[in-house]
Amino acid sequence: MAIVAQSSKFSSYGRPVLAWGVGLLFFFPIFWMVLTSFKTDADAVKPEYLFFFTPTLDNYLNMTDNYDYWRFARNSVITSVSATLFTLFVSVPAAYAMAFNPTRATKDVLMWMLSTKMLPAAAVLYPMIFLAKGIGLYDTHILIITVLSLINLPIAIWMLFTYFKEIPKDIIEAGKMDGVNTWGEIKEILVPLAWGGIASTALLIFIFCWNEAYWTVRLTTIDAATLSKLIEGNRAPEGLFFGRLSAVSTAAVGPIVVLGWFCQKQLVQGLTFGAVK
Amino acid sequence: MGQIVLDKVSKSFGDVEVIPPLDLTIEDGEFTVFVGPSGCGKSTLLRMIAGLEDLTSGAIAIDGEDVTEVPPSKRGLAMVFQSYALYPHMTVRKNIGFPLRMEKMDQAEIDKRVETAATSLNLMDYLDRKPGQLSGGQRQRVAIGRAIVRDPSAFLFDEPLSNLDAALRVGMRLEISEMHERMQTTMIYVTHDQVEAMTMANKIVVLQAGVIEQVGSPLDLYHKPQNVFVAGFIGSPKMNIFTGPEAEKQGAHTIGIRPEHTDVSMTEGTWKGTVGVAEHLGSDTFIHVHNTGLADMVTVRISGDISVKHGDDIYLTPQPDQIHRFDAQGLRIE
Ligand SMILES: Nc1ncnc2c1ncn2[C@@H]1O[C@H](COP(=O)(O)OP(=O)(O)OP(=O)(O)O)[C@@H](O)[C@H]1O
Ligand SMILES: [Mg+2]
Fold this sequence. Notes:
Chain A has 277 residues and is mostly helical. Chain A has 14 helices and no strands.
């Protein structure tokens, strides 16, 4: 009896408290960043203005004055959207082939793709930079889109492969018998059936592209520079511009946080798909 | 049209040869049943005809045209799967119309054909439901509907009834047989249920371990099984098969006698035994007889009722012209 009462007390009070606690802990840095973005650079480092200060919009206003936030944002959108689309364009057929027409090498190919993620990015940094400059693509959208696609392909293929595996083979075969060609199988049967999985894969890849910094910072200067580059450009060793930095960061992560918020359900569903089944 | 010829067709999965080279001709309009124990390669053979499985060697021709390299979508065959394999995201109407839409048929014509098929399959009330909202039997009908709308040159069925309950199975069996009578289209039907095979087929192909044991009409197989395997496989209850002195008396290594070809008496007969269990089906009674010295158990089938009880002495007399004789290789002796 006592145990039952205790456990129900835990689930009605303890669990929400715990959940809120963990949630706030994770949310705190974001909150802090947003808060700081409304302080002047001078106030930002003064402990007495920790919570109580005169809020200012200057950081945000200066942002569009001093440097063209919208250009960075546009580059981020162009590269992230294009890279996501291109990644899907390649990974959907690839995962389809591996899920429904596996060969003896399929497992090895999957492992090999995963293993490319184990290579430290820094190891290929200079070759990449020389290569990009050599073929004249340094600081171009096409380069960034290619790089973002390449680094995300393994994950996309793995995720999609897992979703496609859940579709009964019979249904694809029924399609073949009903006169569908390979492209039709993908369009008429696979995509509608795996829609949820494809959407969450797309969403995740988009977020990864948007947040990518290692390559976008190093392979761009101006023309193809994304929001990651903008944040990086506002970094100062002395930490003098905390307010400005926070504003830029907030403006950079803002869109993705909003997107993530609206697609919460989709994301959670997508990421736990395999686990629930 | 729908004549299908298999020419030295074989299949291996890796190093395992599942089907050794095999020849078979299925005539246009024939209802052919592939029957055999689980794992004997029935589905594999059917899937090779469908094009869903590559041949390891040999060739397949449909209406005289070599289709060995032709993809399934271009062979003009329709298939009904054991799992039904309906498209879960489409309504019944869309499911049935799907093959027609893939042929780029006119929408009005599609609607007409779907309605005709749905009417004949009693699906009119369910056209706007998704497969998930249907019972097993209804799903089965949709799968059949999807196959018939497009007038295929042949139908392929892979154990289509095995997920249905017994009563529904009998009903659907009749419907498929009737469909065949009406359309006279070639049908190939895979089952491991020999009752389905016997009742539906024009021609039965008995398979064991990928090898064709016998091809023939149901009554051929029943009256003249070519070997011990077919003798034991076709017929219900199973034929009594035994070796030993009684067989040698008949000049054979093995003899078989069907339960229904054995006369029973309480007083005299060729073989004496004791009653084990008597199963009363009303119209028939199956008596399982022990201690005959022939086999562990001999089953006899007599029409109507008979009052025997466990432990009674009983005498069995085989009808002499119904004894099947086989040599040491298990092959029939005429
Ligand atoms: N993709 C495959 N890879 C390897 N072996 C396979 C494959 N498909 C089938 N087999 C093997 O081939 C043999 C024949 O299989 P098949 O499915 O044709 O049997 P079946 O007669 O249809 O049996 P059931 O009545 O149980 O459906 C089996 O031994 C099976 O293990
Ligand atoms: Mg099978």
